[in-house]
Amino acid sequence: MSAVALVAEQVSGPIRVAHLTSTHEAFDTRIFWKECRTLALAGYDVTLVAPHDVDVSRDGVRIAAVPRPGGRGERATRTAWRVFRAGWRSRAHVIHVHDPELLPWALLMKLLGRRVIYDAHENLPKDIRSKHYLPGPLRALVAAVVDLLERAACTCLDGVVTVTPGIASRFPPGRTIVLRNFPLLAEFAAATPGDYAARRPVVLYLGGLNEIRGVREMVRAIGRVKDSLGAELWLVGRFDPPGLEHQLAAEPGWSRTRWLGWRTREQVALALAASRVGLLVLHPVPNHLDSLPIKLFEYMAAGLPVVASRFPAWERIVNGAGAFVDPLDAGAIAAEIERLLENPEDAARMGEKGRAAVEQELHWEREAAGLIALYQRVSGAPRAMSDGA
Q1: Is residue 387, in this structure, part of any structural domain at all?
Q2: 341 and 372 share one domain
Q3: Residue 288: per-residue pLDDT
Q4: Exposure pattern of 28-51 as b/e (b: 16+ CB <10 Å)?
Q5: How far, CA to CA in Å, does 87 sit from each of 18, 84, 108, 371, 375?
């Protein structure tokens, strides 16, 4: 029996929960597929408020749609207000917010008697230092102010969820837990590593497509791989900024690149099953050095060897299931891709080692118990609410 099933029997009554995001997709991997579905399975009454086209229910989770924002300014103002309003109307006992811009509304919810959890998906001050749309001299000041405000706000909340121990160290230790971005075993149960050598020479990247995530180096690297290997680079994700796609079209490697855009979870699984190498060459900016990207573990779960940035935290976890390179060196990236494509037996063994690590330890099912334990502590006896609450 899974950890989720074991704790499900301990939940008494339909405690109402609302997850709030103004930034992420309704079917975000961490928010919907892991956290919300885990809580629904454990017996909670779960609503997810998120930008989406229509209200819909899936896997025991109600999605309350708000209009998609037209830009960062609207997202932080009008969309944040709409998310707060929908979250309040859900009459949830526990509010779980996923974006820093929702922290003022989270504090208001707390003041009005709700129990509130904040989910810190990344190290926000470090992330701000890498924002291309902020003038360089301003980044340090903004990061320092945001650091102070985020920490102060979280001292007033009931719980904080983070993704790495380094991020967790910024918040109150007694109320903070780490839920690592490990994959769902069920999504990869049907994976067939045995057909690895028969696959096309596809090199896959999943995630946001921008400069500091190495998209330019990836395109340049695929252009340097030997023509005889017939290698292709598949990019799954959205460009930021959108005009970056047109800049990359001038690179020689673009003719070997397929941009697939955003894909559903089912389509991502198909892309993983069709690929030979997983690529993750994020630039060595502070926020990336202290990160555990979900795509890293999804590659491993699918039995793909990984070519990744040489970050100590990643090297410890991957541990023989991939190769590490200077992410700023397109030639080094190309060389490792060539090596894996030219030696499919060795590459398959690396992929199998990664898959075994996920099956044994690096999976969401082990993390789920921590989420349920936090909710059991935070929710307590639900506060009585009037119909107009």
Answers
A1: no
A2: no
A3: 92
A4: bbbbbbbbbbbbbbbbbbbbbbbb
A5: 6, 5, 12, 20, 17
Contact 21, 98 (CB under 8 A): yes
Is pLDDT of 7 > 60? no
Q: How many Cβ atoms from other residues are within 10 Å of residue 138's Cβ?
A: 11
Predicted confidence at residue 190, as pLDDT, reads 59
Q: Would the pLDDT of 227 be above 50?
A: yes
Indicate whether 206 and 133 sit together in one domain: no
Residue 170 CA from chain centroid, whole number: 20
Q: Say how far apart CA 292 and CA 134 lie, in whole Å.
A: 25
- The mean per-residue pLDDT over the stretch 51-58 comes to 97
Number of separate domains in the chain? 2
Question: Please, which pLDDT band fits residue 290 given cuts at 50, 70 and 90?
Answer: confident
For residue 236, being part of any structural domain is answered with yes
Local structure of residue 232 (DSSP, 8 states): E
Give the number of other Cβ atoms within 10 Å of residue 70's Cβ.
Answer: 10
* Residue from 102, 100, 96 nearest 117 by CA: 96
Q: Are residues 170 and 206 in the same domain?
A: no
Do 332 and 346 fall within a single domain? yes
- CATH number of the domain where residue 79 is located: 3.40.50.2000
Range of the domain at 328: 185-360
362 close to 99: Cβ distance less than 8 angstroms: no
Q: Residue 86 corresponds to which tokens in the numbers above? A: 């929908």
Query: Could you tell me what percent of the chain has a pLDDT over 90?
Result: 80
pLDDT in tens, 170-220: 999 999 999 999 999 888 765 555 588 889 999 999 999 999 999 999 999
Residue 162 lies in a domain: yes
